[in-house]
Amino acid sequence: MPVDKIRSEAEAEELLLLLQKFYGQPVMPLGRFCKAITTWMQCIVQNNTDPELSKTLLHGSDYYTFLNEISTDIEKSNLLGRLLFAREPLRTKKCPIHKGHWNGQAMFFEPCPEKCGGTGWLPERAEDQGFTGVLIREAREVDGRLQYRDPKTKEWIDGGKLDGDWDEDDGDEV
Ligand SMILES: [Zn+2]
To answer: Quick check: helix, strand or coil at residue 57?
Structure first.
């Protein structure tokens, strides 16, 4: 039953129900799941800080003060991005250069020659590209215009007119 186009939210919800039956568990957009987790965290905090609620219920009293920090770490987690958005398996081999440690230079500016993407860990499969939201491409200036190299074809592609200073040796994020 391949579906090439979903025409309405009602139709999408119907398909979700079919998927739920197939998997035998709830199936929903990731954003909906994340909202539920955030709501749960907010309720735990409220249960421990609202004078009326905290009179009788102390669930989470030993950890609720950490939930804000945990929530931030979850939101910015590259590992969760790779597992949930990029659908990568957990990486198990350390990068010989970065040895399991995150590296911002390799993630955002200068690609790691071992292709860890700055995560410190090597992709498990050849098709795993990581999930940083940032593509690092070789770039140069030609006659006041940006050009960047297509990583697959290796051809230079026009990226438009450059404004302001640009150092040819810096490379660029595109
Ligand atoms: Zn590396």
So the answer is: coil
Distance of CA 136 from the midpoint of ligand 1 (Å): 14
Count the helices and strands in the chain (H runs, E runs).
5, 7
**Torsional sign, CA 22, 26, 31, 37:** negative
Name the residue range of residue 36's domain.
9-76
Does residue 28 carry a pLDDT above 90?
yes
Residue 140 binned pLDDT confidence (cut-offs 50, 70, 90): confident
Q: How far is the CA of 99 from the centre of ligand 1 (A)?
A: 7
Q: What is the number of structural domains in the chain? A: 2
CA of 169 to the centre of ligand 1 (A): 21
Domain end point (choices 76, 96, 112): 76
pLDDT of 151 higher than 80: no
Joined together, the tokens standing for residue 161 give: 């007119």
Alpha carbon distance 109, 98 (integer Å): 15
The pTM of the whole model exceeds 0.90: no
| The pLDDT of residue 62 is above 90 | yes
Structure tokens at 19: 């998927």
Distance 121 CA to ligand 1 centre (A): 7
Residue at token pair 């770490």: 73
pLDDT number for residue 126:
87
